[in-house]
Design goal:
By secondary structure, the protein is an alpha/beta fold. It has helices at about 15-25, 55-60, 65-80, 105-120, 130-140, 160-175, 270-285, 330-345, 350-355, 375-380; strands at about 5-10, 30-35, 50-55, 90, 95-100, 130, 150, 155-160, 175-180, 200, 215-225, 235-240, 245-250, 255-260, 295-305, 310-315, 320-325, 360. Helix 1 (about 15-25) packs parallel to helix 6, helix 1 (about 15-25) packs across helix 8 and helix 3 (about 65-80) packs across helix 8.
Length: about 375
Amino acid sequence: MPLSPSSFAILGAGLMGRLLAVELARQGHRVDIYDAGSPAAEGSAATVAAAMLAPLAESAITEPGVVRMGHHALTRWPQLLAPLAEPVFFQQAGTLIVWHRQDAAEAQRLTRQLETNQRAVPELPSLQKLDATGLAQAEPTLAHRFAQGLYLPGEGQLDNRQLLAALVVEMQRLAVRTHWHAPRSPDAFAPGQPGQPDWVLDCRGLGARPQWAALRGVRGEVARIHAPDVTLLRPTRLVHPRYPIYIAPKEDHLFVIGATEIESDDLSPASVRSTLELLSAAYAVHPGFGEGRILELATQCRPTLPDNLPAIRQPRPGVLEINGLYRHGFMIAPAMLDVTLEVLNGGQSQLSQRFDLALDLEHTPEGPARTTDSAARAIA
């Protein structure tokens, strides 16, 4: 049964908050969104992300449920982008993985792992092994630089900052009431009471730690480089036993390059060591990066739960918390959006079972609770 017209207070205007605000407003609901920052989303992990949609590539470090969420996103992102008034760069040209000869053993281990993971999620296209000729055909600019590679068909990426800006325009068009520089916590609301929203959706990421103590920050560092001498047709990853990197090409020879993943919620600037390693690895992929210009060195912390998996929970009636997207924000956000909408509409979610997504829809003093029929009724 579709959700009857309701009022929503969304806390946090990062990626999840904006997607939910737009979709709920499009369905005819009244939506207010609150954020500690500005429309530029300067405090959001989504602003720094490379926004790659690479379920098979990411299967090397995550669970099959997250991989299925990523596969779901490859169909959903074009549907979510199509109604937006502002253009958002999106491509689905696959992922390329390359390595230097001295790292061949690590590449073989990774190949076996990806093949095993692909069998576990058979809806994913099979990886393709490339020799020097195949690699040159797939990515001409890397011809003669690498002898072998892997091609992962169907994977994609989008421009994160274009998307965040386009969602602000869409919120304005749909009459979402935006409250910038206005942080709020769920405690500021009494859902269902007179003058209060019917629902509070908490999408604050690490800002929700006072309410969700298990959250931690995982630091990432990325460089944004303009390199006119480099042309890459798709995201490219370099295998390295200690310092693997990704290079995500955007429009007009802009590249987002990252690798670091540090168990820390430190938001200080990037270290000299990690910056040197990052840029050296990019230069090893293509020497044209040596003449590029560093537009930005950015750091941010991804909101992460103890198992590195996302979750949705209901701490009290009328409040949903959506969090723990870790390093997979853009890859799994459409799946998290669709599960949240299912929960709001029917009190449960079939998609969550497909994605092995933790739903805690009944809060009990004894600890984490199972999703039960009574919980579903309570949230409906």
